[in-house]
Design brief:
eight-stranded mixed sheet; binds guanosine-5'-triphosphate; 2 domains; 415 residues; Four Helix Bundle (Hemerythrin (Met), subunit A); 17 helices; receptor; cytoplasm; 11 strands; three-stranded antiparallel sheet; hydrolase
Length: 415
């Protein structure tokens, strides 16, 4: 549960976008559908009018208190003076200036206008039982117009037109004309999204034959280095021995960054002089991994998509060379995608599928983006396994992909 909370908090930007959108859509009901509000019996009312006012209390209490008449007169005078003083005083906060602002401060300002007046909604039974028929749950009839609005909401969360259409069409099946609350819509939406994602939620497979070679590809800045560091750390924690090869030999900064991650994870990082052949480094890394009896070899690669032909050739050469040591290598080609690029991630999968043999995905930066829906589009379009998701910059911010948890977090659903 704590884990879900964490993911939900991390995906706040995506979920809050859908959350707010759904509230607006349901609140946007055609007046002809009224009454679109169901009243639900709730826990005993907040005793707004059950709290006796101070004056009543004082009057009730007076007879029980024996006092000297002179003392009582002095006290009465003091009380009157105090009351007059109170009425004159400007009362620090504007709280009591209007009945609206006199609501208890625990109700957030945004909710104050909508806070139902308890008096009119109280039924006879409610009064007798001291209960209120609150809160009111808004509902809206699921029709074509609402479906279109839901579609637009999902497209705005970067789910893409095709996937948004599929999700809403399945949500509508057998439910057109039914009145739905925000929570019911979220549940339907979340279940539908989870259903699409279920088949692709697969952790990185581990093979008996070692070293298992994992080639990590993706455009610059997508989070390859960080993901390699996080993966190395997790495998180390699981008792596996890991070697990293800093295959982006053109960028000194990339190599240095990988060395830092290697230190954090306690894993050796093989480097080569700037500008040297990454294929030759990959070969050396294979030799070292075999000699060390390593379980895993993680190879970082360059991500300069601007020159697709060169990158394709570079990756092909790395593969050719490591196959001299193991004809089945690389055993996995992980494509790292940055969630903040939204629909661009679709194009990146297409390109990397052309230039390498992508076997699975890691999506990074799902924290702090409102574009998390792109992962649903990727699952729907390509069906490639999603091995993990990145939800932060720290070493333990790489999580296994859980479709239902992700779908709940994306839609802001509290179960
Ligand atoms: N918020 C967040 N930031 C991340 C995540 N993964 C990576 N980053 C950040 O994204 C930036 C780029 O990450 P890198 O790992 O350097 O990306 P790269 O693909 O190796 O990029 P190059 O080194 O340029 O090839 C860094 O500032 C990371 O800290 C994540 O899951 N969440």
């Amino acid at each position: 549960m704590a884990f879900f909370k964490k993911l939900k908090d991390r995906l706040f930007n995506s979920s809050s976008k859908i959350d707010e959108g759904l509230e607006a859509i349901v609140g946007d009901a055609d007046p002809s559908q009224q009454p679109a509000v169901d009243k639900v019996m709730e826990a005993p009312a907040q005793a707004v009018d059950a709290v006796p006012d101070a004056k009543t209390l004082t009057e009730r209490e007076q007879p029980t208190i024996e006092t000297d008449p002179a003392e009582a007169e002095t006290a009465a005078r003091a009380e009157t003076a105090a009351r007059e003083e109170e009425q004159r005083a400007p009362r620090g906060a504007p709280i009591a200036e209007s009945p609206q602002t006199a609501l208890p401060p625990v109700i957030p300002a945004s909710d104050r206008e909508q806070a139902p007046d308890p008096a009119p909604t109280r039924g006879i039974l409610g009064r007798l039982l001291g209960r209120d028929e609150t809160p009111e749950i808004a509902r809206r009839v699921l029709d074509d117009e609402m479906l279109e609005q839901l579609e637009e909401l999902l497209i705005a969360a970067d789910m893409g037109v095709d996937t948004a259409l599929r999700v809403t069409a399945n949500m509508a099946e057998g439910r057109l004309g039914k009145k739905l609350s925000v929570h019911e819509i979220k549940t339907l939406m979340s279940d539908e999204i989870a259903r699409i994602m279920e088949p692709v939620a697969k952790p990185l497979p581990l093979y008996k034959k070692t070293p298992q070679v994992v080639l990590v590809v993706g455009v610059n800045g997508s989070g390859k280095t960080t993901t390699i560091g996080k993966l190395a750390s997790q495998f180390r924690a699981a008792g596996k021995s890991v070697v990293i090869a800093a295959g982006d030999t053109f960028r000194a900064a990339a190599v240095e960054q990988l060395q830092v991650w290697g230190e954090r994870a306690g894993v050796p990082v093989l480097t080569a002089p700037q500008g040297s052949d990454p294929a030759s480094l990959a070969y050396d890394a294979m030799v070292k991994a075999e000699a060390d009896g390593a379980d895993l070899l993680l190879i970082d690669t360059a991500g300069r998509l601007q020159n697709r032909g060169d990158l394709m050739e570079e990756l092909a050469k790395i593969v050719r060379v490591i196959r001299k040591k193991d004809p089945d290598a690389p055993h996995n080609t992980l494509l790292v995608l940055d969630a903040t690029t939204g629909q661009n991630a679709i194009g990146q999968v297409k390109v990397f599928q052309e230039i390498s043999d992508v076997s699975g995905l890691v999506m990074t930066k799902l924290d702090g983006t409102a574009k998390g829906g792109v992962l649903v589009a990727l699952a729907d379009k390509f069906g490639l396994p999603i091995h993990a998701i990145g939800v932060g910059e720290q070493i333990d911010d790489l999580q296994a992909f859980d479709p239902q948890e992700f779908a709940d977090a994306l839609t802001g659903l509290e179960r």
